[in-house]
Amino acid sequence: MIPIRRAILFTFFLGALQALADETDGPPPPNVLFIITDDLNCDIGPYGHPIVQTPHLDRLARRGLTFERAYTNFPVCAQSRASIMTGLYPAQNGVTKLWRLFRDYVPDAVTLTQHFQRHGYTTARVGKLYHYGNPRGIGTNGHDDAASWDVRVSPIGRDKAEEDKIFSLRPGSFGASLSWLAAEGTDEEQTDGKVATESIRALQHFASTGEPFFLGVGFYKPHTPFVAPQRYFDLYDPNDIEIPTVPAGYLDTLPEPAAKSIRRRTTEIDLPDATARKAIHAYYATTSFLDAQIGRVLTALDELGLSNNTIVLFTSDHGYHLGEHGYYQKTTLFEASARVPLIVATPTQMARGKRTTALVEMIDFYQTLSELAGLNAPQPYIQGHSFAPLLDNPDGKGRPSAITQLENGFSLRTSRYRFSQWQDAGDDAIELYDHETDPAEMVNLAGDPAYAAIRTELEVQLEQRITEITTPVPGLRFIPPTAEDRGYSIEAIKAHHTADEAVIHTFPAALGPVP
Predict the structure, then answer these.
(1) Which helix (H) or strand (E) covers residue 260, if one does?
(2) Known catalytic residues?
């Protein structure tokens, strides 16, 4: 006769074995393919652009949900990306300046991919997920966070070697200047071509091992310089390009900080028609090149049999001006800079080939991907809200508003209005736009008596949101940056993070410790 205690233990052991068997026999956890581009606006096929050709993003949109109103929380690369990955607003993770590293301010933060690691996922990145100097940082680990990844791959292509061939409005400057090149050679020779190639190798690895994965694919384009093989330039006739116009006296209708934000790049103001066409033409060509590389990755996902168990999220770090308000590039609080493309496709969603006008923020990615993957709830301090329910019901409710910060400026986007306020610039440093009558945001209604009640209502809402996003979160150690802290240059970054000295350019055949 078995003693009672041994019988209880034996019964418990059998139950544990059965639970393990049930878990093993259950469906495998869904993988995540997180695709992020650099400086891509919504001038793509899924958003109805009349001439830009993006057939592969169109294909993704047909199997997923396209978000019409998705917004960055800070329209600058480092700040946006650190916010996405930490699930914290920029003022909460310390990254309100371009060259800062969030670990200096929230050293204990559990990033999005660390959250997946804790649930048994292998996390890998190919290309740019955290901030890089682009193109200077290509081929390095940039401002990466080593703890976020099990493997990191930093490709480098012929575009880096051929920078002397690139035309720039500021000769010799490429990252912060309109610049372009119709390149020779093949797609696969370009850096983003190599990003696609190495991402495919990563998918092949994961398909062979069957391990759950979170693969971050970070493309460097269409960020300047606009470089793509010649055949993508051949897709477009410059004469078909529409260049936005700005009425005389327009700057006088804006608060001084807003006017400065669209006049900060002195070589790109009031471009001659021919130059503007060349720049936009190059951007469109680079966008189509980028689309082709995304298509290669998505095709591999299908051919490897991974699509039926992989969540795909496609986006950009922020938007981009192409002549709107007389301005080019990003770093404004206008719609062109704050709005981002976002397409999400999962194996189980009900809404396929649909669109939603629900408001979402990029900080919502952390909560959303965690819910879609069935993970335990993230740390209590993680900000954002899951928009997973919209994938089954695109007519459902999103956020009441989306907020974007740019230095001392804050902008609230509701379903109808954009309301922007610049702090420390006087009581009149306010903008109000009615998207129902003015989707281009060219008529500032802040001083219009007919909108006084709306202005007052939005002022209250914005004040509440500013408090929400600038208050340190409870439960997470925060070391406030000093006003003088501007972060690290590319040259200083390796001295600060010695682990970043080891760089690999191709996906390893066998995964070992993170270099």
Answers:
(1) helix 256-261
(2) 77, 131
Query: Looking at beta carbons, which pairs linking 260-264 to residues 24 or more positions away fall under 8 Å?
Result: 261/327, 261/331, 261/332, 261/333, 261/406, 261/409, 262/321, 262/325, 262/326, 262/327, 262/332, 262/334, 263/327, 264/331
**By three-state DSSP, how is residue 131 classified?**
coil
Q: Along the 515 residues of the chain, how does pLDDT read in single tens digits?
A: 334 333 333 333 334 334 444 445 578 999 999 999 999 999 999 999 999 999 999 999 999 999 999 999 999 999 999 999 999 999 999 999 999 999 999 999 999 999 999 999 999 999 999 998 899 999 989 899 999 999 999 999 999 999 999 999 999 999 889 999 999 999 999 999 999 999 999 999 999 999 999 999 999 999 999 999 999 999 999 999 999 999 999 999 999 999 999 998 888 888 999 999 999 999 999 999 999 999 999 999 999 999 999 999 999 999 999 999 999 999 999 999 999 999 999 999 999 999 999 999 999 999 999 999 999 999 999 999 999 999 999 999 999 999 999 999 999 999 999 999 999 878 889 999 999 999 999 999 999 999 999 999 999 999 999 999 999 999 999 999 998 898 887 667 656 554 445 788 888 876 654 44
CA-based nearest residue to 72, from 359, 463, 288, 415:
359
3-state secondary structure 382-422: CCCCCCHHHHCCCCCCCECCEEEEECCEEEEECCCEEEEEE
Question: Are the C-beta atoms of residues 312 and 302 closer than 8 Å to each other?
Answer: no
Helix count and strand count (H, E) for the chain: 14, 18
Torsion over CA of 77, 80, 86 and 91, rounded to 10 degrees?
A: 110
